[in-house]
UniProtKB/TrEMBL annotation:
<dbReference type="GO" id="GO:0015035">
    <property type="term" value="F:protein-disulfide reductase activity"/>
</dbReference>
<dbReference type="GO" id="GO:0045041">
    <property type="term" value="P:protein import into mitochondrial intermembrane space"/>
</dbReference>
<keyword id="KW-0813">Transport</keyword>
<keyword id="KW-0653">Protein transport</keyword>
<dbReference type="GO" id="GO:0033108">
    <property type="term" value="P:mitochondrial respiratory chain complex assembly"/>
</dbReference>
<keyword id="KW-1015">Disulfide bond</keyword>
<protein>
    <submittedName>
        <fullName>MIA40 protein</fullName>
    </submittedName>
</protein>
<dbReference type="GO" id="GO:0005758">
    <property type="term" value="C:mitochondrial intermembrane space"/>
</dbReference>
<keyword id="KW-0676">Redox-active center</keyword>
<dbReference type="Pfam" id="PF06747">
    <property type="entry name" value="CHCH"/>
</dbReference>
<feature type="domain" description="CHCH">
    <location>
        <begin position="64"/>
        <end position="100"/>
    </location>
</feature>
<feature type="compositionally biased region" description="Acidic residues">
    <location>
        <begin position="29"/>
        <end position="38"/>
    </location>
</feature>
<keyword id="KW-0560">Oxidoreductase</keyword>
<keyword id="KW-0496">Mitochondrion</keyword>
<dbReference type="InterPro" id="IPR010625">
    <property type="entry name" value="CHCH"/>
</dbReference>
<feature type="region of interest" description="Disordered">
    <location>
        <begin position="102"/>
        <end position="136"/>
    </location>
</feature>
<feature type="region of interest" description="Disordered">
    <location>
        <begin position="18"/>
        <end position="39"/>
    </location>
</feature>
Amino acid sequence: MSYCRQEGKDRIIFATKEDHETPSSAELVADDPDDPYEEQGLILPNGDINWNCPCLGGMASGPCGEQFKSAFSCFHNSTEEIKGSDCVDQFRAMQECMQKYPDLYPQEDENDEKSSKDLEAASMEASAAKEEEGSS
């Protein structure tokens, strides 16, 4: 015979072998894709960005959250051949904001700094190439 008893803050449940032989009658509820509290990942089913995704590490809600959202949205929606090459201004604004908060957004070390400068140079080259195409 199964039973339950309380000992202080603990609840002790005893189940018999017979209790475990009976199949569960619990029914699983299908996930609601429109549930705003359900973790959906970075991109919601409707294609919007999920700013509450833990994968963003709180970037969307920090002191530079608006700049981050602007840059990330631009990149996500970019249709340029070099994705995001039309977002240089937004990323620059985000970077300038982050430099105002070095405790929250630590600066890169020397090894990362070189790759960051390479990335920025590539982005500038893409912008220059785009301008040249437009003037031809």
